From TrEMBL:
Pfam families: BRCT_2. This is RNA polymerase II subunit A C-terminal domain phosphatase. It comes from the Eukaryota. Coiled coil: none annotated. Residues 43-124 form the BRCT domain.
Amino acid sequence: MNIKKSKQNNEDEELLHLTKILSQIHKEYFSIPENNIIDILKNKKKIFTGLNFYIYNSKLKKKIEDFDGVVVETLAEANYVIISKNLELDLTSLKADHCVVVDENYIFDSVYKLRKVNVEKYVLYDFSGDDQLINEIFDDL
């Protein structure tokens, strides 16, 4: 019985020791101004910086803009055209403007993860004709 009690005391001391170390790390981390949680969250909101989107679903506009993306008025200005997978549309203008058409879930998944997800699995149509350009865009993401 003494052995069990002794073992439990050793485990309790180890737990207290680990708690003290973690508390110290936490205190140091949050005492440094650049690790301010508000600043961290502000930077996390810059998911779509530098990207221009042409959208067919106006509900996405605020979401894109909230996360530092730009919604443009013409296909020619867009990096990506965002549509729903089940939206039927005429692809002629998309081909003419050499667009990359991406499923709207790209926006939702990126916002959920607070970072740009790999866009390749969301591409529905690629009319850019420039594989090197597309690869460069994908590499940035």
